């Protein structure tokens, strides 16, 4: 169980592919103009991560070491093609909105990195769980960044939810404030860079505070032990 806790902590926080490893920044910065765009790409990336991790784990003892990277890329490309066809069939408008960044999931270093660094060295269940947590961590960052940009830029949240969830989500759009002049800096790519920098800064600040608290607690425990022994 401790192994799964470590994988969860790494994927969501300590080794988050977007905030710590800084992988997959091109689609992350390009498509996160809205929450739904970020969520759609995040779920697609997570599905590819899980499928590729499981497959690589299953064939890890069969594939020769010299050709493992091309094989891993072919596996990832196969799952990306499946996801692309499914999105084309069931979420066509979202598929058009995400455009070229769906097939470009193949080039996401976070996926090939997890296949090489973890899935190729571990059994199926840990590999699948690692794919879930890494994909979830990446998706959370996409959604947070998309939410920040959509809220600041247009004053709404969940705009276009029907593109992902269907007609049932036609009325899910939340209008926080109405504006006739959208804040273009938030919507355009420079806003994505600024928002990403703010998220990384917030994570670093939280990590520093947690580290300072742990150091303080260790000092208090040491003082208590010294006092008890004396």
Binned, the helix content reads over 70%
Q: Give the strand line-up of the largest sheet.
A: 1-2
First-last Cα distance:
39 Å
Number of strands: 2
Low-confidence stretches at least 5 residues in length (pLDDT < 50)? none
Counted by DSSP, the helix tally is: 10
Subcellular location: Cell inner membrane; Endomembrane system
InterPro entries: NqrDE/RnfAE, RnfE
Function: Part of a membrane-bound complex that couples electron transfer with translocation of ions across the membrane.
Keywords: Cell inner membrane, Cell membrane, Electron transport, Membrane, Translocase, Transmembrane, Transmembrane helix, Transport
Please give the structural blueprint:
Layout: H1 2-14, H2 25-31, H3 35-59, H4 68-90, H5 92-98, H6 109-117, H7 124-154, E1 156-157, H8 162-165, E2 174-175, H9 184-187, H10 189-229
Antiparallel strand pairs: 1-2
Architecture overview:
With 230 residues, the chain is mainly α. It has one domain. The protein has 10 helices and 2 strands. It has a two-stranded antiparallel ribbon with strand order 1-2. Helix 6 packs antiparallel against helix 7 (124-154) and helix 7 (124-154) crosses helix 10. The protein starts with a helix and ends with a helix. The model has no long low-confidence stretch (mean pLDDT 91). Keywords: Cell inner membrane, Cell membrane, Electron transport, Membrane, Translocase, Transmembrane, Transmembrane helix, Transport. It comes from Salinimonas profundi.
